[in-house]
Amino acid sequence: MVSRPHGPHVITFYDITHELNNTMSASNEKTKFLKKNNVNLADHIICPSNKVKVDLINHLNINENKISVTHFSSDYKKISQLELSNDKKYNNYLLYVGNRSGYKNFENFVSAFANSKRLQKDFKILVFGGEKPSVCGIDLILKKGLSVDSFEFVHGTNEDLEYLYRNVRALIYTSAYEGFGIPLIEAMRSGCPIVTSNGGALEEVGGSELSYFDPSNVEEMQQQIEDTVYSTDKLIKTSIYGLKRSDDFSWSSCAEKT
Q1: 4-32: string of b/e by CB count within 10 Å (b at 16+)?
Q2: Model pTM?
Q3: What angle do CA 209, 211, 215 make, to 5 degrees?
Q4: Distance separating alpha carbons of residues 184 and 196, to the nearest angstrom
């Protein structure tokens, strides 16, 4: 039994990824138990999106008056529209950021790439961060009959990632569920075009002008990627929109609401 701490108890609840996980593993069940206990003990709950607020109400039966939304942001410096350029060092790369296993949906991304001879001819996939290439990486590439040379797995600093956002053709964000999705804000502030799934809170963060796909639909993912990365007009419009959209999210606002 978890004892209640002294004084007002306010917690941040990020998402319901553990609650959506059907593996029934001991570690996942333990995390679900701890999360539920903390939610029930809390006087108030902070979450990063309205989507998570709704998930808390629907999945954990929490009273909506007990929940506040404080959208997250990014530390990346916002570039100016004048700094946008088509002369990018990695213009023939599509960027994937973060972990690849489970709900991050990397396998469907590999499938979408494998289904497109056009993308294979013109682009490579740059995978930043996440697990070692041997985990949910090279095995999936070989399984789909692709060349390992079509993918580059790299790690680095936040500064390295910021540089990549500014120099790749586009960020492809495939996650099946996100409580917020900070990489979208990072890319927007960096002037990077975005093609993203509509999983979880991603449409709430991305707004009305991005290209979205159903993360479970490989054909739709492939089509949305092709429609964006082969359209100079869409790439420019998405970059300009992202710069403007990123102004809706700031750490100062998050701190003030918190």
Answers
A1: eeeeeeeeebebbbbbebeeeeeeeeeee
A2: 0.93
A3: 135
A4: 8
